[in-house]
Amino acid sequence: MAMLCLSKIKCEKSHKLQPLFSFPKSLASKLSRDPQILLEASTDYGHIIHKSPYAVLEPSSIDDIANLIKFSNSLSNPFTISPRGKAHSVLGQAMAQNGVVVNMTQLNGFRNGSGIVVSNCDVKSPLDCYVDVGGEQLWIDVLHATTKLGLAPLSWTDYLYLTVGGTLSNAGISGQTFRFGPQISNVLELDVITGQGEFVTCSREKNSELFYSVLGGLGQFGVITRARLPLGPSPTRAKWLRLIYDDFSKFSTDQEHLISFNNKNDTNAANYVEGILLFNKPLLDLSFYPTPDQPRIKSLVTKSGIAYVIELVKYYDTNSQPRVDEEVDNLIKGLNFVPTFMFQKDVTYEEFLDRVHVEELVLRSKGLWEVPHPWLNMFIPKSRISDFNEGVFKDIILKQNLTPVILLFYPMNRNKWDDKMSAVIPNEDVFYTLGLLNAASGLDEVKAFEAQIQQILQFCNDSGIEIKQYLTRNKTPQQWIQHFGTKWQLFEDRKAKFDPKRILSPGQGIFQ
Ligand code: FAD
Known about the structure:
Elements: H1 8-13, H2 25-28, E1 31-32, H3 35-41, E2 55-57, H4 62-74, E3 81-84, E4 100-103, E5 116-119, E6 130-134, H5 139-147, E7 151-152, H6 164-168, H7 177-180, E8 189-194, E9 199-203, H8 208-214, E10 222-230, E11 232-233, E12 237-245, H9 248-259, E13 272-279, H10 294-304, E14 306-316, H11 321-332, E15 342-348, H12 349-353, H13 355-365, E16 376-381, H14 385-397, E17 406-413, E18 430-437, H15 443-462, E19 468-470, H16 477-484, H17 488-498
Parallel strand pairs: 2-4, 3-4
Antiparallel strand pairs: 1-2, 5-6, 6-10, 7-11, 8-9, 8-10, 12-14, 12-15, 13-14, 16-18, 16-19, 17-18
Flavin-adenine dinucleotide binds at residues 45, 82-89, 93-94, 104, 135, 157-159, 162-163, 165-167, 169-174, 218-219, 223-224, 471, 505, 507-508.
Enzyme class: oxidoreductase
Keywords: FAD, Flavoprotein, Oxidoreductase, Signal
GO molecular function: cytokinin dehydrogenase activity; FAD binding
């Protein structure tokens, strides 16, 4: 095998590393084995799993990615390749042990401003507008670029410092999902480099199988290099409400009532519905609420053990401003939150969408952002949420000496998802998402949270609650088959078609 020398400087820095592959010169110059870069590529937001790649590709064009994939395919013993967005995965999903990690965000520097392009825009029919976005782009940048023109995508995640390719490989969910569907339901067209290195443009009409495979496809079928997203008129402000309940049944009944108004064009419907649980434990975060109200909220939580909070948002702009208060009143009329436990903020649209970043800055300043995150995300069928409340929230989480940083629990409508896509969800018209977002102070706490997560999964299994994991945790081959259920055969066939050598996104642990 010819000596691999990726670049003089990088070789000097990493001279002790042994070459594994003989890369063509054009690729070798884009690969880095700088120990610091390798170290970064072997970690993620989870800080739990570490897998060291052989090298990191710093692409300066989409062709570099295609060439890397083709080169691996040409070898009798191909190496694995993992596109890495912002590595906000929590269990190594964007890593590639001894393979090559593609630093997708590097592409932005070579786009010459073409990373986010709004097109087809006639002010008279803004609903025909769309934006072409590089797979490496961050949602926060999509927000800024589109709202400048009075436009915005329809479906978001709670946190926007994630890449478009990363969230479309999962689903991309938030409080807008009940009405507009997940982000994967809001894609018109994609450019994808398949697992064989072919560049393919696909949509519902063109090369549709690849389109459906890639959306929610956990990076298994191709690298998303461009997504065309529909836009709507951007609101300018948000009425942001939190309604507190001491009763799970009232909380979930009201959430389901709110998401039953889900027509995209229904201006009376809510724009966002989520749910948060507050536990009677130390670290109760009440920063959203006015200081004078915090003691009575704390005492409600203390009394009931768990308080359930509906988070509800109604957007508006100067045209709808005269009506917005009445619209909010109509939305909450008849809801059964604890009387007087309704709290409201009035913020700009961007402040609302970028709310998690504000928390990120606080956590970073305290050194609490770059810590282990043993998270559990899952979907629960509506028919079993009451059992889930008793068995998980009350009997496991409340009773144990572990506090999640935040626990999200809110419903969405199945008919806003497209079953042809790779994402898997429960087989009921309405299902809930659980986001058990933990942060651990050290290894012992990671172990304790992991034990709790296993206990929750075991409880669901024993009780016959047919959950589907989201941002799925590592599984055995048999568990993956069970996870995909009736979609497994199709998923496997699509892998054989688009990535027959099983090169892509090995960190998901599905085919390796
Ligand atoms: P990475 O972690 O880099 O990659 C994820 C997977 O996608 C990997 O398998 C990778 O190989 C693959 N991949 C990456 N880029 C591409 C590409 N261009 N083409 C093909 N495959 C690719 N999710 C939600 O749905 N809703 C939320 O509200 C939400 N909030 C979050 C808040 C925080 C603080 C964090 C840390 C995560 C949150 N997530 C949320 C999860 C997030 O959507 C996923 O972790 C997502 O994968 C992150 O995107 P990323 O760019 O960091 O992807």
